[in-house]
Amino acid sequence: MQSTLMFHGIGIPGHPMEPGEENYWINWDQFDAIVDYCAKLPPDEVNFTFDDGNQSDLEAARRMRAQGVDGSFFVLVGRLGAPGYLTEAEVGELLDLGMEVGLHGRNHIDWRKADDATLNSEIDRAAEELGELCGRPVEAVAIPYGHYDRRVWTYLERSPFRRIHTSDRGRSRPVDRFVRREPVMRWHDIADVVELIAGKASPAKRLRQAVMPRLKRLA
């Protein structure tokens, strides 16, 4: 089993934040401690993922590369070049550093509330545009807010993405197409993150982790 950590922004945001988003921003000391710890682990034990395409992603990638750590960066196509977000050139720098660039949608909306045309724009067309920018097909996607229902799940199942990242807590097998992730929050210290990586959870939490994705797929 693998643990996949989910990061958002690091340091000081360069743009206004959505309500509650501040809880997903950590400082650089926290991040460096996590990278230092994970660099000593087997490479298939933990995955680093980043949502939203914040400009801090590039510095994070540089620090990771210095330690030999890889990551996947899920960008919002509609925010590329906006204040506080990655530019198209910086996406190229991520690729040059050996990082994966994946899709987080176009405008960071709840896909459950999107009509068919909007869903196509947010996923299919946005993936095509990002693929053209990267010069390669986009193989991975992360669901905004972690929100999905039966319709979104079915849509993604039929998509060409090889890996679909959720915000469902817990660990995943390397062969799983739908990947669970553990968010790293501003109050987490390195000991908390070590527990997340180890997959430690109470029986009640493990039951909730098993049941919640099934309930979402039935909604």
Automatic annotation (TrEMBL):
Cellular localization per UniProt: Secreted
Signal peptide boundaries: none
GO molecular function, one term: hydrolase activity, acting on carbon-nitrogen (but not peptide) bonds
Pfam families in alphabetical order: Polysacc_deac_1 (PF01522)
Record key words, sorted: Signal
Gene Ontology CC, one term: extracellular region
GO biological process, one term: carbohydrate metabolic process
Domain NodB homology: residue ranges: 44-219
Top-level taxon of origin: Bacteria
Family: Belongs to the polysaccharide deacetylase family.
Task of the protein: Is involved in generating a small heat-stable compound (Nod), an acylated oligomer of N-acetylglucosamine, that stimulates mitosis in various plant protoplasts.
Designated name of the protein: Chitooligosaccharide deacetylase
Organism (species): Sphingomonas rhizophila
